[in-house]
Amino acid sequence: MGRIHQLPMSVVNRIAAGEVVERPASVVKELLENALDAGPRRIDVAVDQGGVALVRVVDDGGGIVSDDLPLAVMPHATSKLRVAEDLERIGTLGFRGEALASIGEVSRLVIRSRTAEGTGATLTVDGGVMGEVLPDGCAVGTTVEVHQLFGNVPARRSFLRAAQTEWSHVSEAFVRTALAHPGVAFSLTHNGRRIHDLPAVESWRSRIAGLFGAELADRLIEIESDEGEVSVHGFVGRPEHDVASTRLQYLFVGGRPFRDRSILHAVQEAYRGLLLTGRQPVAFLAFDLPPDAVDVNVHPAKMEVRFREPSRLYRLVLSALRSRFLADNVTTRLTPPGGGLPASRVPEFEAFAPTGPAIPRAATLWPADVVAPAGVVTAAPAPVPAWEVDDAARSSPTAEMAVQMHDRYIVVETADGIEVIDQHALHERLLYEKLKASVEAGGLEVQPLLVPEKVDLGPAELELVSEHADTLARAGMRVEPFGGASVIVTTKPALAGDAPAASIVREVLDRLAATAAAGGGASMLVDEVLHGMACRAAIKAGDRLSPAEVASLVRERRIVRESHHCPHGRPTSLTLSRHELDRQFRRT
């Protein structure tokens, strides 16, 4: 007897489920695509326990006739393809005919549907076992419910993450789909709480505003470019509105969200020289090209596509962004130089110093016989009170001569050469270490705001604030609901200085979203909040510092042990030895 045999259909479906149904978010994506192909005006999504207990998708589209319900849950049964040539001109989101069969194999699947001309019917598939088609007095359209995902496959269910992590992925799948179809109304409910309620809109900017807040949407730069039959349209953020992660980068083609490293590299290249290492631009880009120029039949999950001319799209994106940046004079992210920072921005680092009185911030400690050159300040290796230094000590300390250059770097003379400091990276590290030490010691100094700052958020961000209110409060940020999608900030850490609460909140929420999606624990969440605060509160490239501020930064870097790198891992300084300088000038 031969060893080769045909697999039972249940095994085939379960294998397909392993490719198509990775987690609850995969179910939401597949059901949303089916719903959109039915031509609806509105789609409502509800999930419980991150989608593990329940996923329900309701649309008011064309519906399914009762006789077709059994076929709808059979593998490779579809209304969207007839012949092989149709694969070359796919104009729908779904086409494989695998989703419902795969989902029904690993859950209890219930479908209720009715067409405008027919009567309603319902069908249940429980762990791959199909029930009978029964009459149902449902409305026109289709409702699909998925109960207890992987309930009959314990091994697969054990690989799911915490409910909150799964919910983060579900929310992101919903956002991607809603972004791609602004002309359809959408809603999303989690555990009975309405998170998104998006009306149908005519402009893409309006849909972005509905999902991420009007403040973000209003400040986006619109781009549009075409090259023959290929075009790109969308919105990108200005360099000064960068974010901590790639969470706000979305690509679409033919109403389908997709990922493409080459195109995202083109976006990064357009911003080269405008963003700090580790920072990300905001980008919403939609491509329009002939159906035969893109292959969406690459992966069962349909998140990856293949373009016939990928280099053409790369050039199109890069040219579109750079041309717009030049037209808008977006050539630098530096703030205009001023006369030094306000007093509230003077770095407050003395808590790291040894106990005892500290020298006045404006004071310098020069050897008695040295005169400071104009524009140059020096700082002692530690804040030793000037009045406690005797004559012998005055001539012995090694003073550090320092000068700010280009409003972004500080050049310091060392015993063996020079050190060039990135003022933002160093200050960010110092702030982070101070915030972290204060939180761990339970002594974080909080600054109550005389006038609370109002911040307009998107629905998803509002959900993050509600969920992580305790984490924010632990880090000194008290954020309270203010009606609608707005919150007010009533306190922030004193170390944040005059950094706007709105910018801190947005930076922190961006980091929280990324960390929560990765399943980070409570301590990691707090750490990300501190990272975000330090990043936004730190002095920036382009900020002109007073001599006292230069001295404070130079001095305090000696006190913090890990001052050689910022929290992102970027170096805070580089050192050129005197030997290397002599070699460059051919003195050796």
Characterise this structure.
The protein is an alpha+beta fold and 588 residues long. The chain has four domains: 9-200, Heat Shock Protein 90 (2-Layer Sandwich); 207-327, Ribosomal Protein S5, domain 2 (2-Layer Sandwich), CATH 3.30.230.10; 343-425 and 543-584, MutL, C-terminal domain, dimerisation subdomain (formyl-coa transferase, domain 3), CATH 3.30.1540.20; 446-537, 2-Layer Sandwich (Ribosomal Protein S8, Chain: A, domain 1), CATH 3.30.1370. It is 32% helix and 22% strand. Strands 1, 2, 3, 4, 5, 6, 7, 8 and 9 form a nine-stranded mixed beta sheet that branches. It has a five-stranded mixed beta sheet with strand order 10-11-14-12-13. Strand 1 (42-48) and strand 2 (54-59) form a beta hairpin. The chain is elongated, with a radius of gyration of 29 Å. It starts with 8 loop residues before the first helix and ends with a helix. The model is unreliable at 333-396 (pLDDT under 50).
The DSSP helix count reads 18
Query: What's the N-to-C terminus distance?
Result: 84 Å
Major beta-sheet overview: 9 strands, mixed
Chain-averaged pLDDT: 81
What CATH calls the topology of the largest domain is Heat Shock Protein 90
Strand share of the residues? 15-25%
CATH homologous superfamily of the largest domain?
Histidine kinase-like ATPase, C-terminal domain
